[in-house]
């Protein structure tokens, strides 16, 4: 029960069920590219609430490469193909990372085992950004969203990920679709971290810095509910 933090109808009572959809994706690849590549995974959540649709952007990492949104266009271009050659350009990619020191946290995450998750069911999701919640009395707090996989974390070895990229580039999509069709519904435990305005003012780091996490010892996870994917879309488009 987080109604003391948020007045949104979706959180109004214990046991309330709200339809939702999750969009999984890679970041660097275009549609049809291998989904086992070493790459962050998109984890965007849409809640079909009684007050309207609520879209929450997210990734499978609690942090991101940059803290200043002005750098996002330049960064995302380094993730895509070189416009001159139409080829992936690792020099362009690494030039950006080495010139922006705040990328180190996300790069460390990306080049760990979690950079190649074993499909979409075995990875966590995060809202990443810092959000604000307001309760019925108009009192506000800052928060972060966490979606912890109930299937457990499972990753691919680099050799496995590379092999699957050639043999079955839709490995993650296929796994998710087939398991849902079988009735093996994947689920995630949704939790939040809460920081008061007073805590934010005294915080030793910038709580809005997307390259940093909030320590769980200081801002523990508060369970919100379960997110269960129990059916596939009828039309992919």
What does this structure look like?
It is built from six helices and eight strands. With 237 residues, the chain is of the alpha+beta class. The protein has one domain: Beta Barrel (Catalase HpII,  Chain A, domain 1). Strands 4, 5, 6, 7 and 8 form a five-stranded antiparallel β-sheet that branches. The chain has a three-stranded antiparallel β-sheet with strand order 1-2-3, with no helix packed on it. The longest helix has 12 residues, at 171-182. The model has no long low-confidence stretch (mean pLDDT 95).
Mean pLDDT: 95
Instruction: Quickly count the helices.
Output: 6
Radius of gyration: 19 Å
* Shape by Cα distribution: globular
Pfam family, one: Catalase
GO biological process, one term: response to hydrogen peroxide
GO molecular function: catalase activity; heme binding; metal ion binding
Keywords: Heme, Iron, Metal-binding, Oxidoreductase, Peroxidase
How would you concisely characterize the structure shown here?
This protein is α+β, with helices and mostly antiparallel strands and 237 residues long. The protein contains six helices and eight strands; from the N terminus they run βββαααβββααβαβ.
Keywords:
single chain; 237 residues; alpha+beta; Catalase HpII,  Chain A, domain 1; 5-stranded antiparallel beta sheet; 3-stranded antiparallel beta sheet; 6 helices; 8 strands; 22% strand; peroxidase
